[in-house]
Amino acid sequence: MANNPVKFIDNLRLSGHEGLWQLAIEQGRIAHIIPQPEGLEWRSDVLDAEGGLALPPFIEPHIHLDTTQTAGQPAWNQSGTLFEGIERWAERKALLTHEDVKQRAWQTLKWQIANGVQHVRTHVDVSDPTLTALRAMLEVKQEVAPWITLQIVAFPQEGIMSYPNGEALLEEALRLGADVVGAIPHFEFTREYGVESLHKAFALAQKYDRLVDVHCDEIDDEQSRFVETVAALALKLEMGAKVTASHTTAMHSYNGGLYLKAVPAAENVRYQLRGQPVGEYSPARTFRYLS
């Protein structure tokens, strides 16, 4: 097969279409899809789909490939809370090596490839003076390019304002090649720091012509309303389509009036609110009405 790469996939089914179809491949890309010709004989450059359904590739919009497969290293998150999880990760981060990051990221990407994922956005922690994880992931991005489009978010896990040289490290990550500017305003020491961190993140995105993806209001605190600042900046700077507010779990505790204000704002600005269903079950531990 190595000497005869696949040029056609026969006997496919397409959603919304009757019959079988043939897909032609040229230079690793789909050239065309036509109704299955009659009377075809088997050839070594043909893959028989056996009536399987052809679908567009899946997209992984939010993952942390630098932290993948590190649960329990060096200790387990005993409380199960987000904030202890960040503490445990800080301990593991001190043990990172270039090859460690690459090996784990590659293994997870192989699993994704095997399950039809072709586009991945990964957040990479840049709250690290050495930027070890980022440098490793930039290499992985190039290596995995034949199979996956990998987009890297420079993610200041421990804050832009609250972590020493946080803003400088974030900017250096962009200079090195990160595709997206991240932020985590609810983790900053104060509300004022949180708002300022968003202004700095958007300014860097404009300076380097990057997208924005904010870990936003990922907390039980109903007073965490940084999603409003994200929307305001996206509107003011006309960056709506380039902006994502991830998690936004505090919104489930907003009063009705605030919620009815926040959701139309997202629709009007046309930025994205993105939840991560697998991980969002861990908040809601401090709600009074659950006790």
UniProtKB/TrEMBL annotation:
GO MF terms listed in the record are:
cytosine deaminase activity; isoguanine deaminase activity; metal ion binding
CDD domains associated with the record = Bact_CD
Please provide the record's keywords in A-Z order.
Answer: Hydrolase, Metal-binding
Q: What name does the UniProt record give this protein?
A: Cytosine deaminase
Entry keyword annotation includes Transit peptide: no
Report which superkingdom the organism of origin falls in: Bacteria
- Cite the Gene3D superfamilies for this sequence: Metal-dependent hydrolases (3.20.20.140), Urease, subunit C, domain 1 (2.30.40.10)
List, in alphabetical order, the GO biological process terms annotated in this UniProt record: cytosine catabolic process
What EC identifiers does the entry list?
A: 3.5.4.1
Instruction: Tell me which PANTHER family the record gives.
Output: CYTOSINE DEAMINASE
> Pfam families this protein is in?
Amidohydro_3
In terms of SUPFAM superfamilies, this protein maps to:
Composite domain of metallo-dependent hydrolases, Metallo-dependent hydrolases
Chain ranges of the Amidohydrolase domain: 45-253
Matching entries from NCBIfam families are given as: PRK09230.1
Species source reads: Serratia fonticola
